[in-house]
Amino acid sequence: MSTQRREGTTPEVALRRALHAMGLRYRLHLAPLPGLRRKADIVFGPARVAVFVDGCFWHGCPDHGRRRHEVNNWYWPAKIDRNRLRDVDTDQALTKAGWLVVRVWEHELTGPGAAAAAERVKEALSGRPPPSRA
Questions:
Q1: Which of 15, 27, 59, 73 lies 20 to 30 Å from 9, alpha-carbon distance?
Q2: Phi first, then psi: what are they for 28, rounded to 5°?
Q3: What is the pLDDT, as a whole number, of residue 72?
Q4: What is the overall mean pLDDT for the chain?
Q5: Are 108 and 27 in contact (CB under 8 A)?
Q6: 1-25+55-127, which class in CATH?
């Protein structure tokens, strides 16, 4: 598992390129909340929108996640369940703090899907109030 990329994966880069082509600017790999030891893949700080790109295998995609594991079948189901519980906990903590969480599955970012996912993020941003200027 240590050889798996955490940042800059192909699906994440596809989404970033689509967002950038729309003229949107963002920060990468930041913890949106102090004390929350989890980083969002893409962060729109002033709008308080956090985007997570979830891998189908690692986060138990209902369409592409494995139901049975041939190797280490004692480990993977529990590991993936812990990942999913952590995702729910992260979403709840961020929502409670006033953030909007957008989760995009890895399989949504293949081919022309990146543009559709980027459009979802843009719609989420358009529904957020503009940052206040003091």
A1: 73
A2: -115, 140
A3: 82
A4: 89
A5: no
A6: alpha beta
The pair of structure tokens assigned to 91 is: 């979403």
**Burial, 21: exposed, middle or buried (Cβ in 10 Å; 0-12, 13-18, 19+)?**
exposed
SS3 49: strand
Sequence spans of domains, the chain: 1-25+55-127
pLDDT of res. 3: 56
Vertex 64: Cα angle to 63 and 68 (nearest 5): 110
- Cα 79 from Cα 76, distance rounded (Å): 5
Query: Given its phi and psi angles, is residue 111 left (phi above 0), alpha (psi -120 to 50 degrees) or beta?
Result: left
Confidence of residue 11 (pLDDT cuts 50, 70, 90): very high
Tell me if 2 sits within 8 A of 99, measured CB to CB. no
Give tens-digit pLDDT for 51-78: 999 999 889 998 887 677 778 888 988 9
